[in-house]
Amino acid sequence: MSPAPPFVMINKPGEEAVRWAVQQLDKTGLRVVRTFDLREARLAYSDCPRPHHGTEACDCQMIVLLVYEGDHSPASIIVHSFQETTWFYLVDAPEQPVSHRLETMMQKSLTPPVAVLSDTEN
User: Fold this and answer.
1) Residue 59 and residue 29: Cα distance in Å, rounded?
2) How far apart are CA 30 and CA 103, in angstroms?
3) Per-residue model confidence as pLDDT tens digits over 19-67
4) Does residue 77 fall inside a structural domain?
5) Is the residue at 1 inside a domain?
6) Helix, strand, or coil here: 20?
7) Cβ atoms within 10 A of the Cβ of 116, count?
8) What DSSP state is assigned to residue 8?
9) Domain limits for position 78
10) What CA–CA distance (Å, rounded) separates 16 from 41?
11) Helix, strand or coil for residue 34?
């Protein structure tokens, strides 16, 4: 099975992108719970191998967010970041389906604003 394309991609470092996403989802009335953080999980293992991707220290991050609408089953979002880019992947599988309504709410909430150039910047 090939991975699904990202739900959203943001040109911000992981922690900054996650803070922004949580704020946006909160504004829509959705509740977000952070359930996994790769960097925190690796702290327990001093000998954990880390890929460096040509950088002095690996800055990869993976976070799992559960997004709730009322008392319905949550949607899972896997957040992967590397350097200045963060990708959000929506988990929508037969074992964990996401309602169309919740997916639409999340998509609208997480659509990054488009920068508009003024006439003086051309």
Assistant:
1) 31
2) 11
3) 999 999 999 999 999 987 776 656 555 655 555 555 555 667 889 999 9
4) yes
5) no
6) helix
7) 6
8) E
9) 8-121
10) 19
11) strand
Domain CATH for 92? 3.30.310
C-alpha distance from residue 108 to each of 27, 49, 86, 112 (Å): 11, 38, 18, 9
User: Is residue 63 domain-resident?
Assistant: yes
Distance CA 80, CA 60 (A): 7
Cα distance between residue 91 and residue 79, in whole Å: 11
In a domain, 2, yes or no: no
Domain count, the chain: 1
Other beta carbons within 10 Å of 33: 11
The strand ranges marked E within 4-60 are 8-10, 31-37
Distance, CA of 37 to CA of 77 (rounded, Å): 12
CA 97 from chain center: how many Å?
18
Task: For residue range 94-108, list pLDDT tens digits in order.
Answer: 898 999 999 999 999
> How far is the C-alpha of 42 from the C-alpha of 46, rounded, in Å?
8
Residue closest to 25 by CA, chosen among 116, 113, 120, 111: 111
